[in-house]
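tool_call: predict_structure(chain=1)
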Amino acid sequence: MELSPDWVVGFTDGEGCFYIGIYRHPEMSVGYQVLPEFRIVQHKRDVQLLHAIKRFFKCGVIRVNRDDRMELRIRKLECLRMVVDFFQKHPLKTKKNVDFRKFAKVIRWMGKGKHLNTDGVIEIAKIALETNTGNHVEIEKIITELKSG
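tool_result:
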């Protein structure tokens, strides 16, 4: 299955997710690890689409998400840079483009090492609050903890 850039944009608009994870990691200089990821989840019957998108980006891992769902997950920074470059050249059409632009900013910051200091992780966490659905309480706790030193 060969995919066109327009198809990938449309599919990502409907099914993709740009997620900024922040996790406690005592071995990191700040005590937290920033793990951005690009994900697409599909029912296992459509796993061939995930394989086609993985081939398109030449990156990622396909694994069980939960129950009968599979996901393509791209986490490697160099691969995320390629994903960002692609969507900058081929913009998303929905509100997801707003989240993507914030995600792209985090990827650029990580390229400069901003995720390796407290102020940078706080700034990244604030962006995560604006883009991620779900774990706002946990991210707010992380910001409070980092601000208090």
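agent: The longest strand covers residues 32-43. Proceeding to next step.
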